[in-house]
Amino acid sequence: MSIEVKHHTNEKVVLSEIEERVVRLDFSNASSRHAFDAELLGQLTQHMTLLSKRQVAPVVIIGNSSGDRVWSSGHDLKELSEDRDPLAYGKPIEKALRTIRGYPNVVIAAVSGSVWGGAVDLVMSCDLVFADRNAQFAITPSNIGLPYSTSGLLRFFNNLPIHVLKEMFFCAKPLEVERAAQYGVVNQVVEIGQLDDATLGQARHLATKAPLAIRAVKEQLQVLEDATPISVSAMERIAEMRKQACESADFEEGLLAFSERRPSQFYGR
């Protein structure tokens, strides 16, 4: 049964209780093209954690209702000047992604506009993705010299053909929404102006399903997805390569070039 919509403003994240079992979380960081800084990610994680503790965890829609052309510019690169590896296990973005993947009900990403860097990882961590025809997805760590994490790559590896994955990570060019839907990254593409209605309709439908059954299936799928074996020697080798890249002059140059709005000059050192 529909209930009165309640809005709880918590600075960069707004929680809207649409119905008893349907909740929407809208993020906003307009001064940085809706970048995911530590504050925003912390608020998102807190909301998801509290919602998961309800007797029946509601279906969650994650979106950005600003109407801007950029859904999110990804991880806030200004914070990288002090944190050279934002993708480590205990960092804010990884905590937020784990909270979304481990949430005991369905999480839907509602995407309008371009999605960049770590924001694509957040979309991939949701259970369903609805997008309008303005949406596009770009993975951009190669633009600044940031080595992506193994866990992050596995999320894409399990959802994209290998050559499309390499194209996205090597070239950092946007994947248009029609092509993203072709590869199964997007569940449904809707016309501009119809995203909210389509997403809410799906959420309401999901809210009528058995929550314990959904929770059990979601947990099983996550276990199966995480079951890819990696040898200790491979993990050590990868860790050393990531350490070298994070400490490199190229990474410093990538961050400086981004702040100065100019092309990076990389030398492989």
From TrEMBL:
Q: Name one GO molecular function term.
A: catalytic activity
| A Pfam short name | ECH_1
Q: Which InterPro entries match?
A: ClpP/crotonase-like_dom_sf, Enoyl-CoA_hyd/isom_CS, Enoyl-CoA_hydra/iso, Enoyl-CoA_hydra_C, Enoyl-CoA_Hydratase/Isomerase
Task: Report the SUPFAM superfamilies cross-referenced here.
Answer: ClpP/crotonase
Task: State the similarity comment.
Answer: Belongs to the enoyl-CoA hydratase/isomerase family.
Task: Name the PANTHER family for this protein.
Answer: ENOYL-COA HYDRATASE (PTHR42964), POLYKETIDE BIOSYNTHESIS ENOYL-COA HYDRATASE PKSH-RELATED (PTHR42964:SF1)
Q: What is this protein called?
A: Enoyl-CoA hydratase
Q: Which organism is it from?
A: Pandoraea eparura
